[in-house]
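thought: fold this chain, then report.
action: predict
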Amino acid sequence: MLYYLFNYLDQLDFPGAGMFKYVSFRSGLALILSLFISTAIGRRIIDKLQMLQIGETVRNLGLEGQMSKKGTPTMGGIIIIIAILIPTLLCAKLNNIYVILMLVTTVWLGALGFADDYIKVFKKNKEGMHGRFKIVGQVGLGLIVGLVLFMSPDVVIKENMEVRHDNVIEEVRYHTMETKSTKTTIPFLKNNNFDYANLVNWVGDYKEAAAWLVFVLMVIFVVTAVSNGANMTDGLDGLAAGTSAIIGVALGILAYMSSHFEFASFLNIMFIPGAEELVVYAAAFIGATVGFLWYNSYPAQVFMGDTGSLTLGGIIAVFAIIIRKELLIPILCGIFLVENISVMLQVAYFKYTKKKYGEGRRIFKMAPLHHHFQKPGNDGIQALIQKPFNVVPESKIVVRFWLIGIILAVMTIVTLKMR
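observation:
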């Protein structure tokens, strides 16, 4: 909104109004606003949640310091959502299709997570929303995002072309025409663009339509997987918020690179017109998550709940898909991936051993993985992996996961040059 106001004032030669033309200025403003909003309203929302007695119910799983969390206000994801939406609405171009998709994603998954938390807190149902309804909500969002990217005439790219001499890249050029495409960036390989159409060569004349069908299915899978991964990661004070902030920085850099001709050429990635507005959203996202850490860092004064975790995961997924970097998610979101896999392996191995030996056995002392480090290795739990034997303090686990997240974020960007 401010963009349009100051654009009008700039036409009237109002001093300084031209600053709002620059993405860098609006991104910085969005970051400052989101930090201020999340810290300023955070205390009031926490007090309101406490007044309504919206506290976390905790099962005693034998984790160090676990019972001290009982009664801590949950549904704090509302703070993150508000701190993302307001700066984005104020600082971004609201007619940009990518910004619109990100706003829809934020509200959609925020509402889905809020409904889940509402059932847990007010209906006293510890299981929350039935899994099938949660999946339907995530699939529905993935379908909307995929179809918009398919149908909108504003969603186009300029493909990068390598000019080689003696098998050495001398220059990266771009097609003069903007085109709709099902291509995405793939790491490590020299031919750095992967076309989903290559998966359906066998359909002949229907190849283009089939490629978009595969693309939409991929969008649905990525949105569902990453949002659930973030939900699994939200188990320790500051873990999900801090990890998401790190991922947000990497995505903001990739969005800026993808929307800048020279930087896109340097990284040898496709040029995406209009993606620069996503940098404003990324700045608001980073500010909101970092500001939330003011209250969520150990010992937490508020938990984000599914209201926050589902939203953060969905935002990351849709953002990566828009800038055609979804195949980098296994690296960038490695923390989410490992947390998800640890749960799947634990459940699968438990069922297999129960069927084979009559009793279930475990791989980890407890899943998701972050809880494994909170369990002592000598308390009678039969698990394949017993180390570490001593309990690792919660704050140390979180910081170590953050450090791994930073390494993964750097690797994600570096892999684009490792070809």
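thought: worth noting. The chain has two domains: 26-161+173-342, 344-395.
final: tokens above.
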